[in-house]
Amino acid sequence: MARAFQVFPIGVIRKSDDDVRIIIYKKYRKGLLGLEQFSHIHVLYWFHQNDIPEKRAVLHVHPCNLKENPLTGVFATHSPMRPNLIALARCKIIAVEDTVIRVDAIDAFDGSPVIDIKSYFPPDDPSGTIRIPHWKRKSD
Amino acid sequence: MARAFQVFPIGVIRKSDDDVRIIIYKKYRKGLLGLEQFSHIHVLYWFHQNDIPEKRAVLHVHPCNLKENPLTGVFATHSPMRPNLIALARCKIIAVEDTVIRVDAIDAFDGSPVIDIKSYFPPDDPSGTIRIPHWKRKSD
Asked: What single-letter DSSP state applies at residue A123?
């Protein structure tokens, strides 16, 4: 088996009905310098509830858990079941307050471990060229 | 220290002067079903050349390694030095051929381990609202 890489939680997602906060651990505070100059971030978090070998071995899913969607490879989806349980969400920053990033919304569970934050830059090529399959257009 | 998560390479990036290939290991072949219906993917790979504790402890950088750019937290950049060495690249698919995804370009080293592939959907909110700092506008 190939060597595994080690990923350490750098924070945690806290959600309530009217508030979504990305709480970064104090030891990583310096990493946030200048983040408030961006309007958006990519939040990478860990699908921790699926961290068992059986779920990490799943390679085919019905997207959005809808049986009418065709069986699809996990790499063609954003399924929370995949070999490496990395979730990717683009969020709008509401405020950066010390080690807390308040964002507009995130499709994650309260308590999800955060593994990276990246400032968001628009892609270089125009979005007009994007192509997606029929099942994804229905799910929007 | 918080529990570490295990990330396993699912493939490798191969680059030559005129060709960029994401080679997925055969055991993950099923995960690619349907990927050819998308025009773009997010490729997540590992900054393997920086996988030593000293580089993973760096929290401040001059973006793009330019001293004239202000000292910035790594989470406000895409620096290859960061606590978890996850790289994120959006790529245009040229072709999906069995377990090989040919893409237009990627800013990675030949031999970089691939840790996830995600189909790319355009963000829900319009890009017109994106805000980035001065140093990033200069670096484009």
From this structure: -
CATH number for domain B11-122+133-139, candidates 2.40.30.70, 1.10.443.10, 2.40.128.260, 3.40.50.300: 2.40.30.70
Under the banding of pLDDT at 50, 70 and 90, the label for residue B123 is confident
The pTM of the full predicted model, rounded to 2 decimals, is: 0.94
Structure tokens at B23: 């080679």
Task: Decide if A58 contacts A74 (C-beta within 8 A).
Answer: yes
Chosen from A60, A75, A79, A118 to mutate, greatest number of chain B CBs within 10 A: A75
Helix (H) or strand (E) holding A18: none
**Residue B75 to residue A5, Cβ atoms within 8 A:** no
Neighboring chain A residues of B45 at a CB cutoff of 8 Å:
none
pLDDT for the residue A128: 56
d(CA A118, CA A112): 17
- Identify the closest residue of chain B to A119 by CA–CA distance: B76
* Cβ-based contacts of A4 with chain B (< 8 Å): 6-8
Dihedral pair phi/psi, residue A128, rounded to 5°: -60, -20
